[in-house]
């Protein structure tokens, strides 16, 4: 079959022919219907050899959806023909975190070398993929796979980040979203759907700001130090109740820290390497700073429910598997509007 692989440190991903995967006990073989292109893939492919932990060659794709093609011995919860989305942050299934569905924080994943598809295990950018357990599948229940595949990360990650701040986001509050790309443009919609907050979007690109307004941000402005005063003004001097940084570079983390008002939340989702010094007097009183990773199994079910209710719609650009390298080029150049989705079996 064809797969999109990262094959050499520092190279660009390429479409190659690889052996068809065979399903083992407890596993599920999917014919992939859709695979999302995430900025984290860019991050992974930018790592020097001494920091790269995902194995080579790596079949990319940690956002996946498919049709069950075959099931291994012992699989009883899904059957050939079922349309499913893949829960990506695989865990052991037995530890305290996994027992709560929080496999994104599995206590045994590192020791047991459990890695997500596309981030260690072969991912969804291929004609077929293996899912290690039926536990990691959620029925699409009528949702279109191409339209919704990115909810498995670009939806689930902001949903998890936002859900933890909900007690602070009642009516009359303000939430800031920094970076309105794949994750950010879904985050804006989630905030509008499940919180009472007024949403202020920040980006460095005017086209992304217009997308932010289209998907529900009440205010959108360029991401620069002037935005701190603008947010103070919009909030009557109080500062933001929550700031979600979907970029995470030093300039955006600085902005996030400066914008948060007393008792606010700063949530750094982007993995740009920025750091926020926390200490008395450095940020407003009682600000909480968090760095969440992906989301839980139950949260994926909830985010798909939001899509089914029409509250969240991913803005997509579609590409065939052969065109996938081009999608990554466009992501690299910051030119994707919303999310790029690869359709391997188009
Ligand atoms: P994306 O490329 O689709 O979007 C990034 C957006 O940020 C773009 O709109 C870009 O114009 C904007 N941007 C860039 N520099 C900026 C700046 N200085 N100020 C404001 N906006 C700026 O990326 P994505 O796929 O949405 O991923 C966003 C980030 O989240 C990445 O760092 C990614 O690796 C990370 N991520 C983290 C998790 C997690 O679990 N923590 C999960 C998925 C992705
Ligand atoms: Zn991702």
TrEMBL record:
Cofactor: Zn(2+)
Enzyme kind, highest EC tier: oxidoreductase
EC numbers on record: 1.1.1.1
Signal sequence, start to end: none
Similarity annotation: Belongs to the zinc-containing alcohol dehydrogenase family.
Pfam families: ADH_N (PF08240), ADH_zinc_N (PF00107)
GO terms of molecular function: alcohol dehydrogenase (NAD+) activity; zinc ion binding
Coiled coil segments of this chain: none
Name of the protein this chain belongs to: alcohol dehydrogenase
Catalysed reaction equations from the record: a secondary alcohol + NAD(+) = a ketone + NADH + H(+); a primary alcohol + NAD(+) = an aldehyde + NADH + H(+)
Enoyl reductase (ER) domain boundaries: 10-342
Keyword field: Metal-binding, Oxidoreductase, Zinc
InterPro entries from the UniProt entry: ADH-like_C (IPR013149), ADH-like_N (IPR013154), ADH_Zn_CS (IPR002328), ER (IPR020843), GroES-like_sf (IPR011032), NAD(P)-bd_dom_sf (IPR036291)
Keyword Metal-binding found: yes
């Amino acid at each position: 079959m064809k797969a999109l692989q990262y094959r050499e440190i520092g190279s660009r991903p390429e479409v190659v022919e690889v052996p068809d995967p065979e399903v083992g006990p407890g596993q599920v073989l999917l014919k992939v219907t859709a695979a999302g292109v995430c900025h984290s893939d860019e991050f992974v492919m930018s790592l020097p050899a001494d920091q790269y932990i995902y194995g080579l060659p790596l079949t990319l794709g940690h956002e996946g959806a498919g049709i069950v093609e075959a099931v291994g011995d012992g699989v009883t919860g899904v059957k050939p023909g079922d349309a499913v989305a893949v829960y990506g942050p695989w865990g052991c299934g037995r530890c305290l975190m996994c027992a709560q569905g929080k496999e994104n924080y599995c206590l045994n994943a590192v020791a047991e070398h459990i890695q997500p598809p596309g981030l260690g295990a072969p991912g969804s950018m291929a004609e077929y993929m293996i899912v290690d357990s039926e536990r990691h599948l959620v029925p699409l229940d009528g949702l279109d796979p191409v339209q919704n595949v990115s909810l498995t990360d670009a939806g689930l990650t902001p949903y998890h980040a936002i859900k933890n701040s909900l007690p602070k986001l009642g009516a009359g509050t303000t939430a800031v979203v920094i970076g309105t790309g794949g994750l950010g443009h879904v985050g804006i919609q989630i905030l509008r759907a499940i919180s009472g907050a007024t949403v202020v979007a920040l980006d460095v690109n005017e086209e992304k700001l217009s997308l932010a307004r289209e998907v529900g941000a009440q205010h959108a402005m360029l991401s620069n130090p002037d935005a701190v005063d603008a947010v103070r003004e919009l909030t009557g001097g109080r500062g933001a109740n929550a700031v979600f940084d979907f970029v995470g570079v030093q300039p955006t983390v600085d902005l996030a820290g400066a914008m948060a008002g007393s008792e606010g939340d700063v949530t750094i989702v982007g993995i740009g390497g920025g750091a926020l010094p926390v200490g008395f007097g450095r940020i407003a009183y009682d600000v909480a700073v968090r760095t969440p990773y992906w989301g839980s199994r139950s949260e994926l079910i909830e985010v798909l429910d939001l899509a089914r209710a029409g509250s969240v719609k991913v803005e997509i650009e579609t590409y065939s598997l052969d065109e996938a390298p081009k999608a990554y080029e466009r992501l690299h150049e910051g030119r994707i509007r919303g999310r790029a989705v690869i359709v391997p079996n188009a």
